[in-house]
Amino acid sequence: MPTKFWMLIKLVNARTDPTIFEPFNRSPFSDQIWTSLSRELVGTMGTLFIIGTPIGNLEDLSPRAARILGHVGLVAAEDTRITRRLLNHLGVHVPSVSFHQHNWRARLPQVLRALEDGDVALVSDAGMPVISDPGSELVTNAALAGFSVKVVPGPSALTAAMSVSGFSGDAFTFLGFLPARRKDRREQLKSASQYPMTLVLFEAPHRLKALLGDVLHELGDRQVALCRELTKIYEEVYRGSVSQALEHSQAPRGEYVVVIQGATEPEDSDGASQEASNKVLKQAAARLTELRVNRTRAKDAVAQVSQDLGLPKNVVYKMWVDLGRSKA
Asked: What fold characterizes domain 45-155?
């Protein structure tokens, strides 16, 4: 290393001497050649930058993030099509590769090789990478390989929703996306039912009503904040009880961050749970009655109410039958 270091010093001195390397310095490729020489002589390694990107409003991108995105040699993106729109907005023309949960094992060696030649940026489609997004494997392996890893903080749907929800942010538990299967989803909610801190999770619009039904069933009729399309044109924050949120969310649209009040005193939990169950059953009965009036088929009505309110189909079907008998 000392020999290489002094060779580099001599090269730098030569470059600043107009009588020695003047023709070379006039070359349009001289900067690239000098950079390549320096890295080879000194063994310079790139830095992995973990960069937060806007969750909806492009004005939220920090000047530092914009500058670094314009100078890295490669961008590892969750979805290159989405990231390309951001780079085009910045007027940046940097190569990008996809790096997500389905291809990270195959892509990891390529990104680590890119770090040997220069800096790499890790970005997700929106917000901070690794937070319910891919990237942790790259961060871990880059650090283990000896590369510098730096964070460029930016927007986050998690912290934005927590700030605007009205709940205390002194302590909260982030659950990410809950499982798609109702049984697994309810088990996870049940395991968090006694947490006194605020609960925060992400949900897609087509599963929101089923999620709220499960929350009502497992946690009771707590206060919630439904944060939708944060920082976008149709941003909305609905605050109320879970049962009220269910009535409000008849046609959910956009991505949601759901913030849920933490558990209250344990002795109140049984009564609250029973009250919540009664509310769900009343809502189900009202929906089934409406569907009967509209002459909806039994199979379709049961499936719809079961999905929307998170009730087992056999329970909903029994209610459907009982409603038919009462009308007879």
From this structure: Cobalt-precorrin-4 Transmethylase; domain 1 (3.40.1010)
